[in-house]
Write a structure and sequence with these properties.
The protein is an all-alpha fold and 382 residues long. The chain has helices at 11-46, 48-74, 79-130, 132-142, 145-165, 169-172, 176-198, 216-258, 263-272, 279-294, 301-326, 335-348, 352-356, 358-377. It has two domains: 29-118 and 190-201, no CATH class; 208-374, no CATH class. 17% of the residues are buried.
Length: 382
C-alpha cells in the first residue's frame, strides 16, 4: 500500500498565502488606480485650455437640451432656430440681470478688496486689546528659528501652489497673449454649445455599435452605466445651479436686511459657489462672520448672531425643501461622503474641475459597484 502524500502547506499556511496574495492584488490595483489618476490629472493640466471649454459646453448642453426641445415642439420650430431662440432669451435675461444687479455687486466686490487691509488691522487691534497673552505667545514662537523655518517652508509651498494654479508666463503665452488665450477659450464655449445643442439624439444611441468586441451582456452594462452617469450629471448640475441661485438670493437678502457690509455680494457669491457642495457655505461663513464681528457700524456679537441665523435658516431651507424637491435622491450620498469626495476628486483631477465633478463621479462609481456586485460577484456556480 502506498502512503498518503503529505500536503505541501498546512491549512493555516494556505490561508496565510491566500491573504498575502489577496493583499498583493489589492496593492497592485491601488497602485494602478493611483498611476491612472495621476496620468489623468497631468493630462487635464496639460490640455486644460482645450478640455475646459469642451467640458463647460458639454455640461451646459446636457442641462439646456430639454429647453431647446420644448421650443422645438411647442413653437413648431426647426432645431437651429430653437437653439438661436434659446440664445436670444438667455442674452436678454443676462443683460437684464447685469443692468439690475451688476453695478451694485461689482461696487461691493471692489470695496471689499479695498477694505481687506482695514479688516486685518482691526483684527490685530482686537487681538492686542482682548487677547494680549495669546499674541505674546504667538510672537515668542514666531521668533523661534524652527518655527521661522517651518513658516518659510509653508510660504514656499503656497508660492508653488499659486504657481500651479496660475500658469506661468511661458505656458500662458507671455502676458497679453495668455489673456487672449483665456478670452478665446471663453469665446469658443458658445460655439461648442451651439453645435452640441443641434443634436437631439441620445449620446449613447450608437455606442453599442462601437463595442462589438464585448459580449452582449457586458455591452448592455457599459451602455447602462454611461446612461446612468449622464443622467446623474444632468440632474446634479441642473439642480445644483438652481439651488445655488436660490440660496444666493436668500443669503444676499438676509445679509442686506441684517446690515452686513458687502452683504449682497457675499450672499450671492456664497450661493453660487455651492455648485461645489459645501464650498460656498464654508467660504461664506469664513468671510461673513469675522466681517460681521469687526464691522465698525453696527458690528459685534449681535450681527454675528444675525448672520449665523441667516446661514442656519438658508441651510435648513436647502436641506429640507430645495434639495428634496429639486434633486430628490439622485445621488444618495451621505454628507460626509460628499465632503470626502470633493477633496478626493479635487486632488485626483487637479483642481476645481475635479471638485465640480466629485458628486457625479462618486455617485457613478457607487452605481457601477452595485451593478458589478449584483451581476457578477453574486453569481454562484451550481
Amino acid at each position: 500500500m502506498s502512503a498518503e502524500s503529505t500536503p505541501l502547506l498546512t491549512p493555516a499556511q494556505r490561508k496565510l498565502v491566500g491573504f498575502a496574495l489577496g493583499f498583493t492584488a489589492f496593492g497592485a490595483i491601488g497602485w494602478f488606480i493611483f498611476v491612472l489618476l495621476s496620468g489623468v490629472a497631468n493630462f487635464i493640466s496639460a490640455f486644460s485650455s482645450v478640455i475646459w471649454p469642451l467640458a463647460v459646453a458639454g455640461i451646459m448642453a446636457l442641462v439646456m437640451r430639454p429647453v431647446v426641445t420644448i421650443f422645438e415642439k411647442r413653437l413648431k420650430l426647426k432645431r437651429p432656430v430653437a437653439v438661436l431662440l434659446l440664445y436670444a432669451v438667455f442674452l436678454l435675461l443676462l443683460t437684464a440681470l447685469l443692468l439690475t444687479f451688476a453695478p451694485a455687486i461689482i461696487s461691493q466686490v471692489v470695496d471689499f478688496f479695498a477694505y481687506l487691509p482695514v479688516l486685518w488691522q482691526k483684527s490685530v487691534s482686537y487681538g492686542e486689546l482682548h487677547f494680549p497673552e495669546w499674541l505674546a505667545v504667538v510672537r515668542r514662537y514666531l521668533d523661534n528659528p524652527a518655527v521661522k523655518a517651518a513658516l518659510d517652508g509653508l510660504t514656499q509651498q503656497a508660492q508653488d501652489l499659486l504657481g500651479h494654479l496660475a500658469p506661468t508666463l511661458k505656458s500662458a503665452g507671455a502676458g497679453v497673449f495668455g489673456l487672449f488665450g483665456f478670452a478665446a477659450s471663453l469665446a469658443v464655449i458658445p460655439v461648442y454649445l451651439f453645435f452640441f445643442l443641434l443634436s437631439d439624439d441620445d449620446p449613447t444611441k450608437e455606442l453599442p455599435d462601437h463595442l462589438p468586441f464585448l459580449k452582449k451582456e457586458y455591452r448592455d452594462d457599459v451602455v447602462f452605466l454611461l446612461r446612468e452617469f449622464l443622467g446623474i450629471l444632468v440632474a446634479f448640475f441642473r439642480g445644483q445651479l438652481l439651488i445655488g441661485l436660490i440660496m444666493g438670493v436668500l443669503l444676499a437678502t438676509g445679509f442686506t436686511i441684517g446690515g452686513l457690509k458687502f452683504g449682497l455680494a457675499i450672499g450671492l457669491l456664497t450661493g453660487l459657489l455651492n455648485i461645489v457642495p459645501y464650498l460656498g457655505s464654508i467660504l461664506g461663513m469664513s468671510i461673513a462672520l469675522p466681517l460681521a464681528f469687526l464691522q465698525p457700524d453696527g458690528g459685534g456679537l449681535t450681527l454675528v448672531g444675525i448672520c449665523a441665523g441667516v446661514f442656519v435658516v438658508v441651510q435648513a431651507i436647502e436641506g429640507w425643501f430645495l434639495t428634496p424637491r429639486i434633486m430628490g435622491k439622485q445621488t444618495g450620498l451621505h454628507p460626509v461622503a460628499i465632503i470626502v469626495a470633493v477633496f478626493f476628486w479635487g486632488k485626483a483631477l487637479g483642481g476645481i474641475l475635479g471638485m465640480m465633478l466629485a458628486v457625479p463621479l462618486t455617485a457613478f462609481f457607487v452605481t457601477a459597484w452595485r451593478l458589478v456586485r449584483r451581476n457578477y460577484f453574486s453569481k454562484s456556480d451550481v
